[in-house]
Automatic annotation (TrEMBL):
Cofactor requirements of the protein: Zn(2+)
Reaction equations catalysed: L-histidinol + 2 NAD(+) + H2O = L-histidine + 2 NADH + 3 H(+)
InterPro entries membership: Ald_DH/histidinol_DH, Histidinol_DH_CS, Histidinol_DH_monofunct, Hstdl_DH
Organism: Pollutimonas nitritireducens
Annotated cofactor note: Binds 1 zinc ion per subunit.
Protein name: Histidinol dehydrogenase
Gene, per the UniProt record: hisD
Length: 437
């Protein structure tokens, strides 16, 4: 099974690791060109461009964009028809995701100074957001919940979901999840054209204020490009898993954890760090043995061959340092006393502690969000959360007494900046004889 074996002791380790990580799919030149082209056409031609790209990439035969809206009746019917076990699992996951995200809700706050001046921060939910739910190579009902629930917990009034329907096939579990998650409208469109439609609006689809959600390299590149016209949450591209293992977790478990992210996409990245060379041999053997039975073996094989690695480290301390450099989307710490190592981790989208916390549980139902920063952006980005759907406005209510002290400070600074109107605006209120409060 071709997967790179690296050792931190080899001379070229740092360079090899960089090459392995360097590939940022959303920056790939051909993907960038194609995405720019698609966005331009959507901006210029609206509905017609979205329709044509959807026909081309998703092989959908609709003749108007309006025909690609999936009506609420269809989601409710999908929910009703869902096998009981699937419905229960979706509802359980939704409940856990809601409970977790309720902790993130920020509230408006104020405080009052001695002279009666009130300062604070007002929290307002966004008006209208677009959720991108991927659907090219797999259907993601779980991503519907992960996107929609924090938006609704934040109080967003209009939640518009887009998701591709390859060959025109509408996934019933995705539609049922839209009903459970409280989505307002659903469109069967995907890729860069869907991001463009949400950002610029078309004749049929009104623009949104912010686009959130994960997607493939085209989606990630499109989100990067429309940022500024709309807000975006982060770059959540092809999935990544980094595992630190002390060598005592069953090798099959770790092999399957690597597969679990590799199976998303040929561009997904799965890496194992261990100080135990014979354990890396065991995991490699487990990969070779288990892979042929996986339905998505081809995707897993490409992902592991192109972007995967089993890396021999000198110590778990060194593994933590490498993890911080990689800043993975998901980090599993599969060791004794994982808390000790977790304390040393500064950059990771989500940290899974202990041998029983498989990353797959976080993907579906642990509660925290599975929309996470990829491509090393965990150095500065956070998981999708309620905070992505809330914005803050500063509140400033200066009392008459406060205007006397603040007015002097402001006027002095304004004169220093040579901005006389600013100074005068503050000074008018000094020792004012006006009786207004
Ligand atoms: N980071 C996260 O939180 C997270 C969560 C779930 C999934 N993911 C990732 O999301 C991705 C989902 O990818 P997907 O492909 O299954 O679905 P997707 O919905 O992201 O992409 C499908 C769309 O890509 C476009 N496309 C495909 N080939 C194209 C081409 N040659 N030119 C232009 N456009 C093209 C099409 O419009 C198609 O509708 C995976 O990489 C997965 O790892 C990430
Ligand atoms: N691992 C993905 C985030 O990178 C999320 C997901 C959804 N379904 C399965 N996995
Ligand atoms: Zn996953």
């Amino acid at each position: 099974m071709p997967i790179s074996r690296l050792s931190t002791l080899s001379d070229n380790f740092a360079r090899t690791l960089r090459t392995l990580l360097a590939f940022d799919a959303s920056q790939d030149a051909s993907i960038e060109r194609a995405t720019a082209d698609i966005l331009l056409h959507v901006q210029e031609q609206g509905d017609q461009a979205v329709l044509e790209y959807t026909q081309r990439f998703d092989r959908v035969s609709a003749t108007s964009l309006a025909a690609l809206e999936i009506e609420r009746g269809e989601w409710l019917a999908a929910l009703d028809a869902l096998p009981a076990a699937q419905r229960k699992a979706l509802e359980t996951a939704a409940e856990r995701v809601r409970a977790y995200h309720a902790h993130q809700r920020a509230e408006t706050w104020t405080y009052t100074e001695a002279d009666g001046t009130v300062l604070g921060q007002k929290i307002t939910p966004l008006d209208r957001v677009g959720l991108y739910v991927p659907g090219g190579k797999a259907a993601y009902p779980s991503s519907v919940l992960m996107n929609a629930i924090p938006a609704k917990v934040a109080g967003v009034s209009e939640v518009i979901m887009v998701t591709p329907t390859p060959d025109g096939i509408r996934n019933p579990m995705v539609l049922a999840a839209a009903a459970i998650g409280g989505v307002d409208r659903v469109w069967g469109i995907g890729g860069a054209q869907a991001v463009g439609a949400l950002a610029y609006g078309t004749q049929t689809l009104s623009p949104v204020d912010k686009i959130v959600g994960p997607g493939n390299a085209y989606v990630a590149a499109a989100k990067r490009r429309v940022f500024g016209t709309v807000g975006i949450d982060m770059i959540a591209g092809p999935s990544e898993i980094l595992i630190i293992c002390d060598g005592t977790t069953p090798a099959d478990w770790i092999a399957m954890d690597l597969f679990s992210q590799a199976e998303h996409d040929e561009m997904a990245q799965a890496i194992l760090l261990s100080p135990n060379a014979s354990y890396l041999d065991e995991v490699q053997a487990a990969i070779a043995r288990l892979l042929p039975s996986m339905p998505r073996a081809d995707i897993i094989r490409s992902s592991l061959a192109n972007r995967g690695a089993l890396i021999l480290v000198q110590s778990l301390d060194e593994a933590c340092a490498i993890a911080n450099d990689i800043a993975p989307e998901h980090l599993e710490i599969s060791t004794e006393n994982p808390e000790i190592w977790a304390e040393k981790i500064r950059h990771a989208g989500a940290i899974f502690l202990g041998r029983y916390s498989s990353e797959a549980l976080g993907d579906y139902c642990a509660g925290p969000n599975h929309v996470l920063p990829t491509s090393r952006t965990a150095r500065f980005s956070s998981p999708l959360g309620v905070y992505d759907f809330q914005k803050r406005s500063s509140l400033i209510h200066v009392s008459k007494a406060g205007a006397q002290t603040l007015g002097q400070v402001a006027a002095t600074l304004a004169h220093g900046e040579g901005l006389q109107a600013h100074a005068a605006s503050a000074e008018y209120r000094l020792n004012s004889t006006e009786s207004i409060s």
